[in-house]
TrEMBL record:
This is Glyoxalase. It comes from the Bacteria. It comes from Mycobacterium dioxanotrophicus. The lineage of its organism: Bacteria, Bacillati, Actinomycetota, Actinomycetes, Mycobacteriales. It holds the Pfam family Ble-like_N. PROSITE patterns: VOC (PS51819). Residues 1-126 form the VOC domain.
Length: 133
């Protein structure tokens, strides 16, 4: 159905966002980045377009939510292991992210953090055998 995904998120400072997401190990697609946007690579053909707030506001006439005060969405991303969950979230928190909730259901494990703009990121692992059942 869909061939590519871009999640657009407003940010106050492009360079601050670039620095923050670099520290946990994310990379950027410079082809889709510029003065008012940086494109965070989430996987094959999956991206978060971090847009300077005024550029984000221009996308749609509705008022833009302040993610530090109102939860507008939670970006959920799967990783290959429980250890990968902990490693990525620990690096994000060390880079200045705010710790969020955690959940351990045995077959599924997740932790979350908020970036400097307040966007919620849920990192999770699910046991592939349990998912097949």
């Amino acid at each position: 159905m869909h061939t590519v995904m871009f999640v657009n998120l407003p940010v106050a400072d492009i360079e601050r966002s670039r620095k923050f997401f670099s520290e946990p190990g994310y990379t950027f697609n410079e082809k889709f980045s510029g003065e008012s946007a940086v494109t965070l690579v989430l996987g094959n053909d999956r991206y978060a377009m971090l847009l300077q707030r005024d550029a984000f506001d221009a996308l749609h006439p509705l008022e833009t939510a302040d993610a530090s005060k109102i939860k507008e969405c939670v970006v959920c991303l799967g990783v290959e292991s429980r250890d990968a969950v902990d490693a990525l979230v620990d690096r994000a928190i060390a880079a200045g992210g705010a710790p969020g909730d955690s959940e351990d259901l045995g077959f599924m494990y997740g932790r979350s953090y908020s970036d400097p703009d307040g966007h919620a990121w849920q990192i999770f692992w699910m046991d592939p055998a349990a998912a097949d059942e």
